[in-house]
Design brief:
Radius of gyration: 17 Å
Helix content: 40-55%
Order of helices and strands: HEHEEHHEEHHHEHH
Structural class: mainly alpha
Largest sheet: 3 strands, antiparallel
Strand order of the largest sheet: 1-5-4
Length: about 210
């Protein structure tokens, strides 16, 4: 088996978009907050992905995971949420409003024709509950406090960027190791190969 640290699951834009919309809708319903700090959303997406990977041996959003000063994040989602020029960013902003003056995001509407699996929705639902519980019972809560949780994760501590670094790549195998799921690495790698093969086939089909 190749060194998995040099590989990453393909980034699934549609799933990332729907997952972000689901989180924002859940927080809006439960906490009556339409605008949510962008780093909190990024942390919730990472936590959901982390838990899903340890249970399913696959990533439902995918892409490269980076350790940044404020915690681990999906690199591609970070660029989209922060309004950095990224592929399909125009499509992203049709559904997710970026509010740079407050570093917040707001759901405009749900994307059509995108579905998430039940297991993925469960992880996102638990993310909404985590956000609401911390927000409700922590009277010192401030936007961005979810990072205090993810900064305690072993994978972030191991790959924490130096002060002069913007970010460091976290291998997905490390995320499994720190959760005592090394037994899933070979299985996850097979999933990785299948997903990349499918992505290549689809790319060829759409080029024709």
């Amino acid at each position: 088996m190749p060194n998995t640290s040099t590989y990453h699951f393909p980034f699934k834009f549609d799933q990332a978009l729907m997952a972000t919309a689901v989180l924002l809708e859940g927080i809006e319903k439960k906490r009556h907050r339409k605008e949510v700090y962008d780093l909190d959303i990024l942390q919730l997406l990472y936590i959901a992905e982390r838990n899903y990977l340890a249970k399913e041996g696959a990533m439902f959003i995918g892409g490269e995971i980076y350790a940044m000063q404020h915690g681990p994040v999906h690199g591609s989602v970070f660029d989209l949420i922060r309004g950095i020029d990224a592929p399909r960013s125009d499509e992203w902003t049709r559904y997710i409003q970026i509010l740079p003056e407050t570093h917040s995001v707001k759901r405009i509407c749900h994307p059509e024709n995108i579905r998430l699996w039940r297991e993925e929705l469960i992880e996102l639902s638990e993310g909404v509950e985590l956000y609401c519980l911390m927000n409700k019972y922590n009277y010192d809560w401030e936007d961005g406090d979810l990072a205090k949780l993810t900064l305690s994760f072993p994978e972030w501590k191991k790959y924490k960027p130096a002060k002069n670094q913007k970010r460091r790549l976290i291998p997905w195998e490390e995320i499994l190791k720190v959760q005592d799921r090394e037994d899933l690495i070979a299985y996850a790698y097979r999933n990785f190969e299948i997903e990349n093969m499918v992505q290549k086939i689809l790319a060829e089909v759409f080029r024709q």
